Amino acid sequence: xxxxxxxxxxxxxxxxxxxxxxxxxxxxxxxxxxxxxxxxxxxxxxxxxxxxxxxxxxxxxxxxxxxxxxxxxxxxxxxxxxxxxxxxxxxxxxxxxxxxxxxxxxxxxxxxxxxxxxxxxxxxxxxxxxxxxxx
Amino acid sequence: xxxxxxxxxxxxxxxxxxxxxxxxxxxxxxxxxxxxxxxxxxxxxxxxxxxxxxxxxxxxxxxxxxxxxxxxxxxxxxxxxxxxxxxxxxxxxxxxxxxxxxxxxxxxxxxxxxxxxxxxxxxxxxxxxxxxxxxxxxxxxxxxxxxxxxxxxxxxxxxxxxxxxxxxxxxxxxxxxxxxxxxxxxxxxxxxxxxxxxxxxxxxxxxxxxxxxxxxxxxxxxxxxxxxxxxxxxxxxxxxxxxxxxxxxxxxxxxxxxxxxxxxxxxxxxxxxxxxxxxxxxxxxxxxxxxxxxxxxxxxxxxxxxxxxxxxxxxxxxxxxxxxxxxxxxxxxxxxxxxxxxxxxxxxxxxxxxxxxxxxxxxxxxxxxxxxxxxx
Lengths: 135, 376
Description:
The complex is a heterodimer. Chain A is α+β, with helices and mostly antiparallel strands. Chain A is 28% helix and 27% strand. Chain A has helices at residues 38-49, 80-86, 89-95, 106-117; strands at residues 7-16, 21-29, 56-63, 69-77. Chain A has a four-stranded antiparallel beta sheet. Chain B is mainly α. Chain B contains 13 helices and no strands. Chain B has helices spanning 2-43, 54-78, 104-127, 129-140, 160-169, 176-183, 216-223, 246-261, 269-283, 298-310, 322-330, 335-340, 361-375. The relative contact order of chain B is 0.03. Chains A and B meet through loops of A and α8 and α9 of B.
């Protein structure tokens, strides 16, 4: 529901020159709304701090008991290079600057490993296929 | 042979004659003594107001019994029947009653009387046993020179001064030396005289009763530093909510850390759940003891307990889709369950804080309202 008003307050504002960013704690007041999405928050924060909305990284939001208020953190980077340099990988994936690695089948990998445990040397390459049934 | 028996019988005869003479002499002298005593009693010289003491009564009655027994056996040896008796005319209670006769039946009556008297004396002796024993003990012990007359062994009242005397001597009631000295001759074991104490069962760990919740005033006092300036309002509540329990302080410290360091704490799922529960509890005014409590804590239960109880919550949780749950709800409960929930008309609900879970409440309300409308 975009019509309900949302109030954003920031606390503990710090300009972190070492990591080329501005970081602060965000208090979002959203009565009659379950909570506010991170995308919407980054837009609002970019409007307040006159930055690019791609540079705003909100994370760690928790709604207090009873609803109406959420508390979390947000970072605003100066430029994309420093963001790629200093942000952890999962947040880069969240914001879209990186792609997630291909999800391998975990079960297949483990089965292959267990089959390879039984063999030695070049025969390990043969263990890539499962044994044919019936033979 | 016959000469020896004759000599023996002669000797016996001589002995018999001598003993008979002795008996006659002693009997005459005894008669004289008794006559003089009787005259004394008749003249009133001897003080007989208090009667005979209990201890001498016992021996005298016993002697009387034995005399009667001997005379009775003599009567029976002569062949007199036991039915002959010459009782005195006055009744038994009369003090001026004369003596009985000397027939066999009279002897039997006297024996019965003596026997009864002996039994009664025995009972009375039992009641006075302590005093008699004390007297006997005092007589048996060597005479202790008493410095002050307060410690009189014959006194029957409890004497607190005697306790101090015992302590100064260095031996308590349970000490071996004094006990052995006085009571070793008896050979009877006397246990130490200890005051009786009530037996309190030791409290077991699981039976310990839980104490009530700490009052707010005390818990806030424990944490506030009263030397610092603190704010108070007219309602007495203050502006900042005081942290009641240690858990509340811990949670506040957690949130402060998170905000200070720009991270969220990494916790296990269980801990995260407990933290959320405790925060909910504290927000509603409880103390946040999720670790010690099963289910909902004080805050949530206090606020919403009656509501949450009145809503029907099935034990099995979510049953398939919503339709399945509805179908299960529409089924009748067992007879036992229905009987438990039926008594709203008969039994007044005094002890509960709200309506219990009832099956047909809405239907009943609809029925009532429709009846009212029909009456109008």
